[in-house]
Design goal:
The complex is a heterodimer. Chain A has a domain of 90 residues: 2-Layer Sandwich (60s Ribosomal Protein L30, Chain: A), CATH 3.30.1330. Chain A is built from four helices and four strands, in the order αβαβαβαβ. The longest helix of chain A is centred in the first third of the chain and has 30 residues. Chain B is mostly beta strands. Helices cover 12% and strands 43% of the residues of chain B. Chain B has a five-stranded antiparallel sheet, with no helix packed on it. Chain B has a five-stranded mixed sheet with strand order 3-2-4-5-6, with helices on one face. In chain B, strands 9-8-7-30 form a four-stranded antiparallel sheet, with no helix packed on it. Chain B is globular, with a radius of gyration of 23 Å. The chains are: A alpha+beta, B mainly beta.
């Protein structure tokens, strides 16, 4: 197809748009970094006997939990791992981000809702185990951030997930 | 600091303009069995070559409707510019049922006056004769205008060639990251323009009823938020900033409200946002997923997806009475509803066994049909004349746009040069 020349006026519009995008992106990066440094959960001090710190996966505990298509039911493996997380998180102030995802099948906004439902299932389970709900943030990416690109059963099963961060 | 940013942004824009254009091409995969044969004689201004080939753009528009076959210029026996140069025998020999001819005349102020006519070959009769004014910068607009008039004169349906489409592209951006772009192009994929670029997901573009603004979802703040933005303008406004989902914005037909989805109260519910008073009004109240709202053309009801019955199905909620009606019963997955402009033809994503296709349902007769035979189909959007719908599908590992006529007789693909193209949104009529 032919190459279309960008009009100058439009170029300016895009420039300022990009500037806006740049500045908000850097803000977001900052926020993300703050979230992750997570206000000192006294990294595994001998006192509380926990080697948890900021590393949610310490000791090889799963931090990604998988789901069936159009479902948000926790597997027994997920519940077993979440029991350990709950034990470690209870009483602490480590901020945890629960990112819900869906596979690419079906519609994008429904998948956004499904990702949120999955992340909420994790949040509710942790809360029932005594974790402070205020320390758990749920965010859904729907099908927008696949863990594995590919349109096959294996990719889809890896993409229907909640990641603890 | 500002200067550095400006330079960076500039290099981004130039880099994008040179390398990452996803411009769409057209592959017609199925047309009607008995297309109308039409010839479009070259339209030029004296001996000067115009920067755009008007008659070629008109021919391509008509072919893309699936209802027309066009005669190749190389096979034409003459290139008439006015009535006295039309020899009907020449066109009968070629099997042309219709002929479009015309000419451009340069005006003293440099503008262009284009005269065009549509004639029926068998009856040797002029169906349409018009004059349109423009300049070298909007020759494509002139061409699409001619296509609209020719299409309407022959089919009786208003042409939608002068409309635009918005869509989202995702291309590799280094490492595991994607670069998301919100784009607007002519309905034929030409004159693609960048609205917004982000390293965080962009989703769910939708048009204002006057065709001058878009609403969409951006994750640039680290969470989803709904934005509005004017075309050709960098001014953007963030409309929502709630915890949880902020999604699926849909502009009301009168332009005053958005329907959207928020989960700030615990689970996804449909709200309206009054753009004047900035008041949010909660519309649904159910512990299930309620999402993907869309207005009926009269603005009196919302259709939306809900899994309150155990699987995603489409419901209609009349705003004044609060009356709720389930519209779909066939299969275990019907979602992302859109209504054709007649308010009667519902299109949706339908799960058929393991496959996801676009289906239509006549809300009066109940007739249900699967329109597409591609793979992982989603995001249907109906042209403002109701004749075609665009959707996103998958070929290999890439998503691309595809189109199908509302009667499923015409099908074509719009592959991009690279990357994913998704979530098309067809503009309203712009003129």
């Amino acid at each position: 197809m032919t190459f279309q020349t960008l009009k100058t006026g439009f170029l300016v519009a895009v420039l300022s748009t990009l500037l806006a995008a740049c500045s908000s992106t850097s803000t977001e990066d900052g926020a993300g970094a703050d979230g992750m440094s997570g206000s000192g959960v006294g990294t595994g001090t001998a006192g509380d006997g926990s080697a948890y710190g900021d590393d949610l996966g310490a000791g090889g505990v799963a931090t990604v939990f998988y789901f069936e298509f159009d479902k948000a039911v926790l597997t027994s493996e997920a519940r077993a791992a979440l029991d350990i997380h709950a034990q470690r998180l209870r009483g602490g102030n480590r901020q945890v981000r629960l990112e819900g995802h869906a596979d690419e099948r079906g519609t994008r906004e429904y998948n956004m809702a499904l990702g949120e439902r999955r992340a909420n299932a994790v949040k509710e389970y942790l809360t029932l185990q005594g974790v402070n709900a205020a320390n758990l943030e749920v965010i859904s990416y729907g099908e927008e951030r696949p863990a594995q690109l590919g349109s096959d059963d294996q990719s889809w099963s890896l993409n229907r997930r909640v990641e603890m961060k | 600091m500002v200067n550095t940013r400006l330079l960076l942004a500039l290099s981004l824009v130039l880099g994008f303009a040179l390398t990452a254009r996803a411009e769409l091409t057209i592959e017609i995969t199925q047309g009607v069995d008995d297309p109308t044969v039409i010839a479009v004689s070259p339209i030029e201004a004296g001996n000067a070559v115009l920067p755009e080939d008007i008659s070629e753009i008109v021919s391509a528009d008509l072919r893309r409707s699936g209802l027309f076959n066009t005669i190749d210029r190389g096979n034409m026996l003459s290139f008439p510019r006015e009535a006295s140069e039309v020899y009907f025998k020449d066109w009968r020999v070629l099997g042309a049922q219709y002929l479009v001819y015309g000419k451009g005349e340069r005006q003293p102020d440099g503008r262009l006056k284009v005269t065009f006519s549509l004639v029926q070959v068998a009856g040797e009769k002029t169906v349409l004769a018009q004059v349109v004014h423009g300049n070298d910068g909007n020759l494509r607009d002139i061409a699409h205008y001619i296509s609209d008039k020719v299409y309407e004169a022959i089919t009786g349906i208003r042409g939608a060639f002068s409309t635009r489409i918005a869509y989202v592209t995702a291309t590799a951006g280094g490492g595991n990251r994607l670069i998301y772009r919100l784009m607007v192009a002519d309905a034929d994929g030409a004159r693609e323009r960048l609205m917004l670029e982000s390293r965080e997901p962009l989703m769910s573009p939708g048009w204002s009823p006057d065709g001058k603004e878009l609403v969409y979802v951006s994750f640039e703040t680290g969470r989803p938020a709904v934005f509005r933005q004017r075309l050709g303008n960098a001014n953007r406004e963030q409309l929502t900033n709630f915890k949880g989902l902020n999604g699926a914005p849909a502009w009301s037909p009168d332009g005053r409200k958005l329907a959207l989805v928020l989960s700030k109260d615990g689970n996804p519910e449909i709200y309206t946002l009054d753009l004047g008073s900035r008041q949010f009004t909660r519309i649904t109240n159910h512990f299930s997923i309620d999402t993907e709202p869309n207005w009926t053309p009269d603005g009196k009801a919302l259709i939306f997806t809900s899994d309150r019955g155990g699987s995603p199905q489409i419901y209609k909620l009349t705003l004044a009475s609060g009356q709720l009606e389930r519209l779909t019963f066939r299969g275990s997955y019907n979602a992302r509803p859109r209504l054709a402009p007649d308010g009667r033809t519902l299109v949706m994503v339908h799960r058929d066994g393991g496959a996801f296709h676009i289906a239509s349902q006549d809300l009066v007769s109940g007739d249900f049909r699967i329109l597409t035979n591609t793979y992982l189909d989603e995001s249907p959007t109906v042209a403002p004349n109701g004749a075609m719908l665009l959707y996103a599908t998958k070929r290999g590992t890439n998503s691309l746009l595809a189109a199908v006529s509302i009667d499923a007789g015409v099908k074509f693909l719009l592959p991009a040069r690279e990357g994913d193209v998704r979530e098309p949104a067809w503009s309203p009529f712009l003129n």
